[in-house]
Amino acid sequence: MTAVLVERRDRVLWITINRPEKRNAIDAGVLGGIRAALLAAATDDGVRAVVLTGAGERAFCAGADLGEAQRGGVFSGGDTHPFVEVFRAAEACNKPLIARVNGAALAGGVGLLCMCDLAIATDDARFGVPEVRVGVFPLMILGYMLRLVPRRRLLEMALTAESFGAAEALDYGLLNRVVPRERLDDELAALLGRILDNSPQAIRLGKKAFHAMQDMSLHECFEYAQLMIARLSQGEDAREGLAAFAEKRPPRWS
Fold first, then answer.
1. In a domain, 252, yes or no
2. Shared domain check, 156 and 229
3. What's the sign of the alpha-carbon dihedral 174, 178, 184, 185?
4. What are 88-123's pLDDT values in tens digits?
5. Distance of alpha carbon 236 from its chain centroid, rounded?
6. pLDDT tens digits along 159-169
7. What count of other Cβ atoms lies within 10 Å of the Cβ of residue 185?
8. How far apart (Å, rounded) are the C-alpha atoms in residues 246 and 84?
9. pLDDT band for position 8 (50/70/90)?
10. What is the CATH number of the domain that holds 45?
11. pLDDT averaged over every residue in the chain
12. pLDDT at 161
């Protein structure tokens, strides 16, 4: 069975972790498949957005495959850890990346959720970072979680290893919205539609700027912003957007 399914649906690339019998647990094949798909999406002008999800209805991703982890696997160290390579591919992908959380997201699965730009979950999904129960800590995903979750909430999650529901995940900043399971795909389609209506160039450069500015000082943000807005305003999409506004018509993005 292929560990990761990659499917083009019009202008959206779908990446599906395909290990439902293992609750879509992460192994080397999963990480390699996600990384390859993200790198391909970044260079494909026909792809305007990316969806990451899990097969079946039980789990988005239940974290590392502990059977493989006993042999090293995703718990191993080194200069080129496969999880870090996935995160680097996500950072290099200049297309909106949306998590479709169709079930449990645990441990490394929370990391995959956090690396996405936006996230929609079913109201019965469960979340947690239980790594301390097996003698490790959620170090590989901590860089993302520190940017999303309030400090005390995050420490409680990591130290107690307790799971929590979708409403709490929304409150903690892990999700954009929570919907009944039967509405998940309709809500995702509506969100994608609103994104795809907008300027692809503005989204690409805007996402790049967003990621760059989050670690800058305020004055560095000012300097970077004035350079980027000049670049954006000179682009073809900006010219088309302003012309469409003046002519009272929908823009025709190139």
1. no
2. no
3. negative
4. 999 999 999 999 999 999 999 999 999 999 999 999
5. 28
6. 999 999 999 99
7. 14
8. 46
9. very high
10. 3.90.226.10
11. 94
12. 97
Return the structure tokens found at 57. Answer: 């209805």
d(CA 52, CA 34): 9
Tokens 């999650």 -> residue: 157
Question: Which residues constitute the domain of residue 234?
Answer: 200-247
Q: How many domains does the chain have?
A: 2
Strands 164-165 and 126-128: antiparallel
DSSP string for 22-74: GTT-B-HHHHHHHHHHHHHHHH-TT--EEEEEESSSSEEE--B-HHHHTTSGG
Whether residue 217 is found in the same domain as residue 242? yes
- Residues 129 and 205 both lie in one domain: no
166 neighbors 178 (Cβ within 8 angstroms):
yes
CA 89 from chain centre, in angstroms, equals 11
Do the Cβ atoms of 74 and 34 come closer than 8 Å?
no
- Strands in 107-229 per DSSP E: 118-122, 126-128, 164-165, 177-179
| Torsion over CA: 139, 140, 145, 146 (sign) | positive
Using CA atoms, how far apart are residues 213 and 222, in angstroms rounded to an integer? Answer: 9
The CATH number given to whatever domain includes residue 230 is: 1.10.12
Q: Which of 99, 97, 12 is nearest to 54 (CA)?
A: 99
Task: Answer whether 5's CB lies under 8 Å from 51's CB.
Answer: no
